[in-house]
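Table 4 source record.
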Amino acid sequence: MAKSAKYLLIGSTEAYSGKSATILGIADQLQAKEITIAYCKPLGTFLSSNQGSTIEQDVQFITDILKLPESMVRSPLLFMDAETIEKRLGGQDSTDYRQSLQDYLQSLNSDVVLVEGAATLSAGTLFNLSLPKVAQTINAAVLLVARFHSVLLADTLLFAKQRLGESLVGVLINDIPQEKLSRVKTTLKPFLERQEIPVLGMLPRNNLLRSVSVRELVRQLQANVLCCPDRLDLMVETLTIGAMNVNAALKYLRKGVNMAVVTGGDRP
């Protein structure tokens, strides 16, 4: 009989908040303590095609980095593509996905199952797989990752607390500008904790974490490398569109750090 799994559902308040990186950090700590982990992402949203089959890139990435065996990983229960959504809207798909979710997770034999949620609290509602519904269905503890834009983040997190209730075990506030970190610590964090929203971590903005390698740009764009193949591991922090003559553009280009310039092929 499989051991009773404990589910930790990692959600976010918006896309690209840092869920996958958070999962990697948690998984690394658990593995260091010899706690067995499994990973799944019920809603596939970051899709690509490979030899005629659909692949969820987050699932592939995390599986490769953590070196998880196939038995400890679940591909998405469903893919959030146009065809899937249209079938649901048109009535061709009447599946009870809450029951499907329980079946989907049943055979994972690990101490902890890390479940990656969709981009927002509401994503997946059409299939009864929104973050609150998933948490309720599998009795999961929820860790919410939130990207900091302003102290109005308090509003978003209060709403999340209302929706998630006691299943919300804490929040991780990510991408805080260095000059605002002190204010977040002294104002926002105490306020949230008075509202019974534990702040489990506060991560300052890190340009490296927001960067992409030249090699990855080449791969995603399926581009040809014309020169300097030995520099593909350089990191790109900003992108600039070059749509003016060189002399006029220089003052803007000089302000950039680790910048990639996108410009027409006829530019000198």
